[in-house]
Design a protein that fits this description.
Among the domains are: 60 residues, Arc Repressor Mutant, subunit A (Orthogonal Bundle), CATH 1.10.10; 94 residues, Glutaredoxin. It has a 5-stranded mixed beta sheet, covered by helices on one side. The chain starts with a helix and ends with a helix. By secondary structure, the chain is an alpha+beta fold. The longest helix is centred in the middle third of the chain and has 19 residues. Bound molecules: FE2/S2 (inorganic) cluster.
């Protein structure tokens, strides 16, 4: 597929957001951009990103296959993601997922025959306080159950765009991919606003009721900015011995590097 001039222009705008010589940092939004045109990240999309960013296809492919938000095969207009992680699963997420599987006749990462709906299960959608949740193109539907999940699926099949419980109005996966590439949603009034939902601030309310606070916490603490004169600023002098990142330390457990020992033993 030859990408349209609109996509090429957007690609140039994305790359221009990054400092000269750092264009490879634009890869993540670029992958969303190609997904917005084809509905998934195809081999052509990978080649396009590689060409625009001066990367190899292998480098682009390694990133595209790492993140689940980049789809590697044609995906429906409506990506229905049901959280089946522990919290949601036991509260009804598993039942909702199973009901959708049976009704739509598809399993994880599969698309209905009409190409409209792709179903997937997800591992924690970062909304445990509203469990069980599902998302449609990353917009939340809270406290779902098998029945409400089926109602939602039928509405999507009928061409309706039910309003999510929080956030913006629904748009297709391709339209959402444009936004994820960093371009604003220009539909008037589409972006959700309003205060945080009650479950989100329940902890804060309890803290207020029982007068629990973090001692010395100043919500107006100014954020320190890096000193432009970095080389001479005392605050920017590196310590003589840099501390090792945690990943360099031996793993938790009784023996150092037990995995290596096991592999060595197995290969004898
Ligand atoms: S476990 Fe479902 S959103 Fe976290």
């Amino acid at each position: 597929m030859i990408f349209t001039e609109t996509t090429r222009e957007r690609a140039r705008q994305i790359i221009a957001r990054y400092p000269e010589g750092r264009s490879r940092s634009a890869l993540l939004p670029m992958l969303h951009l190609v997904q917005s045109e084809e509905g998934y990240v195809s081999a052509n999309g990978i080649a396009f990103c590689a060409e625009m960013l001066g990367l190899t296809r292998a480098e682009v492919g390694a990133v595209a296959t790492f993140y689940t938000m980049y789809k590697r095969k044609p995906t429906g207009d409506w990506l229905v993601s049901v959280c089946t992680n522990t919290m949601c699963g036991v509260l009804g997420g598993d039942a909702a997922y199973k009901a959708l599987e049976e009704y739509l006749g598809v399993h994880h990462d599969e698309t209905t025959a009409d190409g409209k709906i792709t179903l997937e299960h997800a591992e924690c959608l970062a909304a445990c306080d509203y469990a069980p949740v599902l998302t449609v193109n990353y917009e939340y539907f809270d406290r779902v159950d098998a029945d409400s999940a089926l109602v939602l699926a039928k509405q999507l099949q009928n061409g309706e765009r039910p309003h999510p419980h929080r956030g913006a109005r629904l748009c297709t996966l391709r339209e959402m991919s444009v936004q994820l590439a960093g371009f604003a949603d220009d539909r008037e009034g589409a972006v959700g606003e309003g205060p945080a939902g009650e479950p989100t601030i329940a902890g804060n309310r309890l803290a207020e009721r029982y007068a629990i606070s973090v001692s010395g916490f100043d919500p107006d603490t100014p954020i320190k900015r890096p000193d432009p004169d970095a080389a001479t600023s005392p605050g920017n002098v590196k310590p003589a011995t840099a501390s090792k990142p945690a990943s360099d330390s031996k793993p938790a457990g009784d023996a150092p590097m037990p995995q290596k020992a096991a592999i060595k033993e197995a290969s004898k």
